[in-house]
Protein backbone atom coordinates (compact mmCIF):
# COMPACT_ATOMS: atom_id res chain seq x y z
CA UNK A 1 0.00 0.00 0.00
CA UNK A 2 1.46 3.36 -0.99
CA UNK A 3 2.30 6.21 1.37
CA UNK A 4 -0.55 8.36 -0.01
CA UNK A 5 -3.09 5.67 0.91
CA UNK A 6 -1.63 5.32 4.40
CA UNK A 7 -1.93 9.06 4.95
CA UNK A 8 -5.56 8.89 3.84
CA UNK A 9 -6.21 6.22 6.45
CA UNK A 10 -4.59 8.38 9.11
CA UNK A 11 -6.90 11.28 8.21
CA UNK A 12 -9.91 8.96 8.26
CA UNK A 13 -8.87 7.65 11.66
CA UNK A 14 -8.76 11.16 13.08
CA UNK A 15 -12.32 11.72 11.86
CA UNK A 16 -13.36 8.48 13.57
CA UNK A 17 -11.94 9.73 16.86
CA UNK A 18 -13.94 12.94 16.61
CA UNK A 19 -17.10 10.85 16.68
CA UNK A 20 -16.14 8.78 19.72
CA UNK A 21 -17.83 9.55 22.99
CA UNK A 22 -16.37 10.49 25.56
CA UNK A 23 -0.93 -0.55 29.72
CA UNK A 24 1.84 0.15 30.98
CA UNK A 25 5.19 0.17 32.83
CA UNK A 26 5.94 -0.85 36.38
CA UNK A 27 8.83 0.39 38.44
CA UNK A 28 11.39 -2.07 39.78
CA UNK A 29 8.85 -2.91 42.47
CA UNK A 30 5.64 -2.29 40.55
CA UNK A 31 4.52 -3.31 36.99
CA UNK A 32 3.07 -0.92 34.29
CA UNK A 33 -0.62 -1.70 33.33
CA UNK A 34 -2.48 -0.79 30.12
CA UNK A 35 -6.22 0.05 31.06
CA UNK A 36 -12.82 14.92 25.58
CA UNK A 37 -9.32 15.59 24.73
CA UNK A 38 -7.19 17.97 26.76
CA UNK A 39 -3.66 19.23 26.27
CA UNK A 40 -0.85 17.17 27.77
CA UNK A 41 1.39 19.01 30.21
CA UNK A 42 5.04 19.27 29.24
CA UNK A 43 8.12 19.18 31.47
CA UNK A 44 10.70 21.94 31.71
CA UNK A 45 13.43 22.16 29.04
CA UNK A 46 15.91 20.84 31.60
CA UNK A 47 13.78 17.75 32.20
CA UNK A 48 13.41 17.25 28.44
CA UNK A 49 17.16 17.24 27.96
CA UNK A 50 17.62 14.82 30.85
CA UNK A 51 15.05 12.35 29.55
CA UNK A 52 15.68 12.26 25.80
CA UNK A 53 17.55 9.09 24.75
CA UNK A 54 20.46 9.88 22.43
CA UNK A 55 20.43 6.45 20.79
CA UNK A 56 17.03 7.06 19.22
CA UNK A 57 18.42 9.80 17.00
CA UNK A 58 20.75 7.25 15.41
CA UNK A 59 17.97 4.85 14.46
CA UNK A 60 17.04 4.92 10.76
CA UNK A 61 13.53 5.01 9.36
CA UNK A 62 11.89 1.63 9.66
CA UNK A 63 11.47 0.14 6.17
CA UNK A 64 7.88 -0.77 5.36
CA UNK A 65 7.25 -4.48 5.12
CA UNK A 66 10.81 -5.26 6.16
CA UNK A 67 11.93 -8.89 6.17
CA UNK A 68 11.59 -10.34 9.65
CA UNK A 69 8.67 -8.14 10.66
CA UNK A 70 5.79 -10.28 9.51
CA UNK A 71 2.32 -9.07 10.53
CA UNK A 72 -0.16 -11.10 12.54
CA UNK A 73 -2.25 -13.46 10.42
CA UNK A 74 -5.09 -11.55 8.75
CA UNK A 75 -7.59 -14.18 9.91
CA UNK A 76 -6.54 -14.04 13.56
CA UNK A 77 -8.95 -12.71 16.16
CA UNK A 78 -8.17 -9.98 18.68
CA UNK A 79 -7.78 -12.40 21.58
CA UNK A 80 -5.81 -15.14 19.78
CA UNK A 81 -2.64 -15.91 21.83
CA UNK A 82 -0.92 -16.97 18.62
CA UNK A 83 -1.51 -13.50 17.21
CA UNK A 84 -0.19 -11.86 20.37
CA UNK A 85 2.94 -13.99 20.19
CA UNK A 86 3.41 -13.15 16.51
CA UNK A 87 3.08 -9.43 17.22
CA UNK A 88 5.54 -9.71 20.10
CA UNK A 89 8.15 -11.54 18.01
CA UNK A 90 7.66 -9.14 15.11
CA UNK A 91 8.14 -6.06 17.29
CA UNK A 92 11.20 -7.61 18.95
CA UNK A 93 12.75 -8.32 15.55
CA UNK A 94 12.16 -4.75 14.43
CA UNK A 95 13.74 -3.25 17.53
CA UNK A 96 16.70 -5.60 17.42
CA UNK A 97 17.40 -4.32 13.91
CA UNK A 98 16.93 -0.69 14.97
CA UNK A 99 19.27 -1.03 17.93
CA UNK A 100 21.86 -2.71 15.71
CA UNK A 101 21.65 0.13 13.19
CA UNK A 102 22.30 2.57 16.05
CA UNK A 103 25.34 0.58 17.22
CA UNK A 104 23.62 -0.81 20.32
CA UNK A 105 22.74 -4.32 21.46
CA UNK A 106 19.10 -5.20 21.96
CA UNK A 107 18.29 -7.36 24.99
CA UNK A 108 15.17 -9.39 24.37
CA UNK A 109 12.13 -9.27 26.60
CA UNK A 110 10.18 -12.34 27.69
CA UNK A 111 6.50 -12.91 26.99
CA UNK A 112 4.16 -14.34 29.61
CA UNK A 113 0.43 -15.00 29.17
CA UNK A 114 -1.81 -15.04 32.23
CA UNK A 115 -5.51 -15.08 33.12
CA UNK A 116 -5.28 -15.45 36.90
CA UNK A 117 -2.90 -14.22 39.58
CA UNK A 118 0.66 -13.95 38.28
CA UNK A 119 3.91 -13.55 40.23
CA UNK A 120 6.59 -11.24 38.83
CA UNK A 121 9.69 -9.48 40.12
CA UNK A 122 7.49 -6.39 40.24
CA UNK A 123 5.16 -8.13 42.67
CA UNK A 124 2.06 -10.28 42.44
CA UNK A 125 -0.61 -9.09 40.03
CA UNK A 126 -4.26 -10.12 40.10
CA UNK A 127 -6.44 -11.36 37.26
CA UNK A 128 -7.94 -7.86 37.04
CA UNK A 129 -4.61 -6.42 35.91
CA UNK A 130 -4.40 -5.53 32.23
CA UNK A 131 -1.31 -6.00 30.04
CA UNK A 132 1.84 -4.65 31.69
CA UNK A 133 5.62 -4.54 31.49
CA UNK A 134 7.86 -5.36 34.45
CA UNK A 135 11.36 -3.86 34.06
CA UNK A 136 12.72 -5.91 36.94
CA UNK A 137 12.50 -9.12 34.89
CA UNK A 138 12.17 -7.71 31.34
CA UNK A 139 8.75 -9.34 31.29
CA UNK A 140 5.80 -8.46 29.08
CA UNK A 141 2.69 -9.88 30.71
CA UNK A 142 -0.43 -10.18 28.59
CA UNK A 143 -3.75 -10.96 30.26
CA UNK A 144 -5.72 -13.00 27.73
CA UNK A 145 -8.96 -12.22 29.57
CA UNK A 146 -8.33 -8.52 28.96
CA UNK A 147 -8.15 -9.05 25.21
CA UNK A 148 -11.28 -11.22 25.23
CA UNK A 149 -13.20 -8.47 27.04
CA UNK A 150 -11.80 -5.74 24.79
CA UNK A 151 -12.95 -7.55 21.67
CA UNK A 152 -16.43 -8.25 23.01
CA UNK A 153 -17.12 -4.85 24.55
CA UNK A 154 -15.97 -2.77 21.59
CA UNK A 155 -16.75 -5.22 18.78
CA UNK A 156 -13.15 -5.27 17.60
CA UNK A 157 -12.48 -7.58 14.67
CA UNK A 158 -8.90 -6.73 13.76
CA UNK A 159 -6.00 -8.62 15.24
CA UNK A 160 -3.94 -5.48 14.85
CA UNK A 161 -5.83 -3.86 17.74
CA UNK A 162 -4.26 -6.45 20.03
CA UNK A 163 -1.01 -6.13 18.08
CA UNK A 164 -0.92 -2.41 18.88
CA UNK A 165 -1.33 -3.09 22.61
CA UNK A 166 1.33 -5.81 22.52
CA UNK A 167 3.74 -3.53 20.65
CA UNK A 168 3.00 -0.79 23.22
CA UNK A 169 4.27 -3.09 25.98
CA UNK A 170 7.35 -4.00 23.91
CA UNK A 171 7.91 -0.25 23.58
CA UNK A 172 8.09 0.03 27.36
CA UNK A 173 10.90 -2.53 27.23
CA UNK A 174 12.65 -0.40 24.61
CA UNK A 175 12.31 2.61 26.91
CA UNK A 176 13.86 0.61 29.73
CA UNK A 177 16.83 -0.34 27.56
CA UNK A 178 17.27 3.27 26.42
CA UNK A 179 17.25 4.53 30.00
CA UNK A 180 14.05 6.53 29.62
CA UNK A 181 12.45 5.09 32.76
CA UNK A 182 15.56 5.77 34.82
CA UNK A 183 15.77 9.37 33.61
CA UNK A 184 12.11 9.92 34.29
CA UNK A 185 12.55 8.57 37.82
CA UNK A 186 15.44 10.99 38.39
CA UNK A 187 13.37 13.90 37.07
CA UNK A 188 10.47 12.87 39.30
CA UNK A 189 12.74 12.84 42.34
CA UNK A 190 13.74 16.45 41.74
CA UNK A 191 10.30 17.59 40.52
CA UNK A 192 7.54 15.41 42.03
CA UNK A 193 4.82 17.78 40.83
CA UNK A 194 5.60 16.88 37.22
CA UNK A 195 5.45 13.10 37.73
CA UNK A 196 2.00 12.59 36.21
CA UNK A 197 2.87 14.67 33.15
CA UNK A 198 6.00 12.58 32.61
CA UNK A 199 4.05 9.36 33.06
CA UNK A 200 1.75 10.50 30.27
CA UNK A 201 4.71 11.31 28.04
CA UNK A 202 6.18 7.85 28.66
CA UNK A 203 2.87 6.24 27.67
CA UNK A 204 2.44 8.40 24.57
CA UNK A 205 5.96 7.60 23.44
CA UNK A 206 5.16 3.90 23.82
CA UNK A 207 2.06 4.46 21.68
CA UNK A 208 4.20 6.13 19.02
CA UNK A 209 6.76 3.32 19.09
CA UNK A 210 3.88 0.86 18.66
CA UNK A 211 2.86 2.91 15.64
CA UNK A 212 6.39 2.58 14.25
CA UNK A 213 5.93 -1.18 14.38
CA UNK A 214 2.62 -0.86 12.55
CA UNK A 215 4.47 1.14 9.89
CA UNK A 216 6.63 -1.91 9.16
CA UNK A 217 3.61 -3.91 8.07
CA UNK A 218 1.42 -1.18 6.60
CA UNK A 219 2.75 -1.56 3.06
CA UNK A 220 2.34 -5.32 2.90
CA UNK A 221 -1.36 -5.04 2.11
CA UNK A 222 -2.27 -6.58 5.47
CA UNK A 223 -3.26 -3.36 7.25
CA UNK A 224 -6.67 -2.31 5.98
CA UNK A 225 -8.80 0.73 6.74
CA UNK A 226 -10.89 -1.46 9.04
CA UNK A 227 -7.71 -2.45 10.91
CA UNK A 228 -6.80 1.21 11.40
CA UNK A 229 -10.31 1.93 12.68
CA UNK A 230 -9.99 -0.83 15.29
CA UNK A 231 -6.53 0.40 16.30
CA UNK A 232 -7.98 3.89 16.78
CA UNK A 233 -10.79 2.43 18.89
CA UNK A 234 -8.33 0.49 21.06
CA UNK A 235 -6.20 3.61 21.60
CA UNK A 236 -9.31 5.66 22.36
CA UNK A 237 -10.76 3.39 25.04
CA UNK A 238 -7.51 3.28 27.03
CA UNK A 239 -7.37 7.10 27.23
CA UNK A 240 -7.69 8.53 30.72
CA UNK A 241 -10.65 10.72 29.80
CA UNK A 242 -12.53 7.83 28.20
CA UNK A 243 -11.88 5.60 31.21
CA UNK A 244 -13.06 8.25 33.67
CA UNK A 245 -16.13 9.09 31.60
CA UNK A 246 -17.00 5.39 31.43
CA UNK A 247 -16.72 5.15 35.21
CA UNK A 248 -18.90 8.22 35.72
CA UNK A 249 -16.04 10.08 37.39
CA UNK A 250 -14.94 13.69 37.02
CA UNK A 251 -12.31 14.17 34.32
CA UNK A 252 -9.72 15.58 36.77
CA UNK A 253 -6.89 15.87 34.19
CA UNK A 254 -4.35 16.47 36.96
CA UNK A 255 -4.75 12.81 37.98
CA UNK A 256 -4.15 11.33 34.53
CA UNK A 257 -1.16 9.06 33.98
CA UNK A 258 -1.69 7.68 30.45
CA UNK A 259 -2.98 10.54 28.33
CA UNK A 260 -6.23 11.55 26.69
CA UNK A 261 -7.85 9.49 23.97
CA UNK A 262 -7.02 12.16 21.40
CA UNK A 263 -3.34 12.24 22.35
CA UNK A 264 -3.04 8.45 22.38
CA UNK A 265 -4.55 8.21 18.92
CA UNK A 266 -2.41 11.08 17.64
CA UNK A 267 0.83 9.48 18.74
CA UNK A 268 0.12 5.96 17.50
CA UNK A 269 -0.82 7.46 14.13
CA UNK A 270 2.36 9.56 14.16
CA UNK A 271 4.42 6.39 14.47
CA UNK A 272 2.33 4.62 11.84
CA UNK A 273 2.69 7.43 9.34
CA UNK A 274 6.35 8.37 9.87
CA UNK A 275 7.96 5.06 10.82
CA UNK A 276 10.77 6.91 12.56
CA UNK A 277 11.63 6.36 16.25
CA UNK A 278 13.03 9.88 16.52
CA UNK A 279 9.56 11.23 15.63
CA UNK A 280 8.37 9.86 18.99
CA UNK A 281 10.00 12.43 21.29
CA UNK A 282 6.90 13.18 23.33
CA UNK A 283 9.04 14.91 25.94
CA UNK A 284 9.72 17.81 23.59
CA UNK A 285 6.23 18.15 22.12
TrEMBL record:
Assigned GO CC terms: membrane
A Pfam short name: Zn_peptidase
Protein name, entry field: Neutral zinc metallopeptidase
| Organism of provenance | Solirubrobacter ginsenosidimutans
> What PROSITE patterns does the record point to?
PROKAR_LIPOPROTEIN (PS51257)
- Keyword set, alphabetical order: Membrane, Signal, Transmembrane, Transmembrane helix
What is its subcellular localisation? Membrane
Region Disordered, as annotated, extends over: 26-45
Q: Which residues form the signal peptide?
A: 1-22
Predominant location of this chain?
Answer: membrane
Q: Where is the composition biased (Low complexity)?
A: 27-45
UniProt keyword Acetylation present: no
What membrane topology was assigned to this protein in its record?
A: Single-pass membrane protein
- Does the keyword field hold Membrane? yes
| InterPro entries tied to this protein | Uncharacterised_pept_Zn_put
Amino acid sequence: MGGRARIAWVCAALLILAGCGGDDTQTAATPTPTPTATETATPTPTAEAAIEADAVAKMPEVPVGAVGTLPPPASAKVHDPGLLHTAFESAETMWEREFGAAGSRYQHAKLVFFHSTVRTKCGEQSRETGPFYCPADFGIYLNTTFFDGLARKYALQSGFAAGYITAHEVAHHVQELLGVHQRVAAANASDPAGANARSIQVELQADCYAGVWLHTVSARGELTEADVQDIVTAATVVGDDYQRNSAGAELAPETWTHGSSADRVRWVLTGLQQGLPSACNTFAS
